[in-house]
Design goal:
2 domains, 5-stranded mixed beta sheet, 42% helix, disordered N terminus
């Protein structure tokens, strides 16, 4: 009887320890632009790796990077590069941020489908968002007041728009600030006078994407760098990732992971999905 108990105890110790090692938790926080790619990737990854639990939340790139610095996340999704002051703060806390580029995005200005304006220049977008152009008739539209919809300041999309479109000028204080890409789409879809901007994966039939400098946002124009407001999307880790975190990022960058990038409406950067996208572009 004692021997049986010892044997059972030994079996539990061996297999119980392996189970404890297998059951790993990964926390991902940050960008709402990267959110759909991360969501699709974690669902596929956890299906293939039942012992891994991945939690995901999207509150903005700034919040994700802050969480990485505070060590409350192991992966920070970001639609912008980490800032110098964030790197300094991270290193003061013993954190070494490492960027992993996982996709390309073309920031897309959107309007209500009934708006007859189909395209704007960078200069027109800049003046609209600074509050210098206030009526659609000034850019070829109807005599309607422009309602400016913007992301909030914790957003990497807000940062990218400010850099690429506004040249770091301030957004008009009259702008309606939204906490996510989805919220911007919803606000613009319900207001004929509104203009907003989102990651290209969020453009749907409820809104109309505008050309910028006469160039549409697409995989073709983003890869060729013709589109003037394309940007990389990142996952940041503390140092070079190891174990399940390294394996998850490797999956995101694999052909299977990059197919999910395409499925979610963004542009792949590696593997078979990029090759297929490039071939499709050449045929067009």
């Amino acid at each position: 009887m004692v021997r049986k108990l010892l044997a059972v105890g030994l079996i539990w110790l061996i297999f119980g320890t392996n189970l404890a090692v297998a059951a790993e938790n990964v926390v991902i926080k940050g960008s709402t632009t990267v959110l759909p790619v991360a969501q699709a990737a974690l669902e596929a990854y956890m299906k293939a790796h039942p012992g891994v639990n991945i939690s995901l939340s999207g509150a903005g790139s700034g919040d994700g990077i802050k969480a990485l610095i505070d060590k409350s996340t192991v992966i920070a999704n970001s639609s912008r590069e980490i800032k110098d002051n964030e790197i300094t703060l991270a290193r003061e806390k013993g954190v070494n941020p490492v960027a992993h580029t996982i996709a390309i995005d073309a920031l897309t200005p959107i309007v209500h489908p009934k708006n007859k304006v189909n395209g704007l220049t960078i200069d027109q977008l800049s003046q609209i968002y600074q509050g210098k152009i206030t009526n659609w008739k000034e850019v070829g539209g109807d005599d309607l007041t422009i309602i400016v919809v913007s992301r909030d300041s914790s957003s990497g999309t807000f940062e990218a728009w400010g850099h690429l479109v506004l040249n770091n000028a301030k957004v008009t204080p009259k702008a309606q600030l939204q906490a996510s890409n989805g919220a911007v789409v919803q606000a613009v879809s319900k207001n004929r006078y509104a203009i907003g901007y989102v990651g290209m994966g969020y453009v749907n039939k409820a809104v109309k994407g505008l050309t910028v400098n006469g160039i549409p946002a697409s995989a073709k124009t983003a890869l060729s760098k013709e589109y003037p407001i394309a940007r990389p999307l990142y996952m940041y880790t503390n140092g070079q990732p190891e174990g399940v975190v390294a394996d998850f990022i490797k999956f995101v960058l694999s052909p299977a992971g990059q197919k999910l990038v395409v499925k979610e409406g963004f542009v792949p950067i590696t593997g078979e999905a990029k090759e297929k996208t490039s071939k499709k572009i050449k045929k067009q």
